[in-house]
Amino acid sequence: MKILAANSNLPLARAIAGYLEVPLTDVSVRRFADEEIFVEVHENVRGEDVFVVQSTSYPANDNLMELLICIDALRRASARRITAVVPYFGYARQDRKPGPRTPISAKLVANLITQAGADRVLSVDLHAGQIQGFFDIPTDNLYAAPVMAADIQARYGERDLMVVSPDVGGVVRARALAKRLDNAPLAIVDKRRDRPGESEVMNIIGEVGGRHCILIDDIVDSGGTLVNAAQALLDNGAASVVAYITHGVLSGGAVARVDGSALKELVITDTIRPTDAATESSHIRILTVAPLLGEAIKRIADESSVSSLFD
Ligand code: R5P
Fold this sequence. Notes:
This protein is an alpha/beta fold and about 300 residues long.
């Protein structure tokens, strides 16, 4: 087995390699003067089972292109099997046509990865489970929920917990986490605009009064969804609000928005390499998914069950 890392998340790739007790494959992924990407694998990979670790996070297009070119280099070097390990699958939010004459970019990206020569894909908390079906190659979608549940039990296990989905679309994810927390009760934030032009009203479905709320979501990008949901929960009598979000996209002023919010803390994972601002924030804590990904890679290489990781 070989683990090869492009540039988007080297600390995570190193941690995965550490878990598996294998060295990272010797590769250079660099730029020509005009920013074209050039990849050179410096060791033999003929006949090897190779896992390429690359999140397609910011800068999404550069990181995607690095992934595609790494896969192409490995295919032409006769690797036996290539698995694209994409802890954060960028473009996933574009998984349907929101209006006429718009693309389904998540499908296009899935096609690109497949056409480049990937034999399998491994990702974490895909924005929508059905994105697995965008790939016509085996695709494993891991869940960060067990990592989060262990942290919640250790930090907040003694409290009167309530798991909250910040929108109707996230209910399945929230229910799965609640199940892992001894069937904690569930609430949903329902955003509604009664008439066009009127401001959005946040209705809370569920009795959150006096509860310690755990907001769960797959992505925090601008932080708007999260910060507004936290405020609505407190306005409805919640005792405190913390958030567990798998992918810390945290664009623009998101870290400052979280720092200035009513959230007690935001816990993200390292599927995306955290920025300095995120690492330095006293409101943001980072959990690692390296053992989860490392174990899944080990099981894929051994042809054993990946789903049993979540039993
Ligand atoms: C949306 O469906 C996602 O699950 C997230 O809620 C969304 O991407 C968060 O975006 P933002 O942080 O910009 O509100």
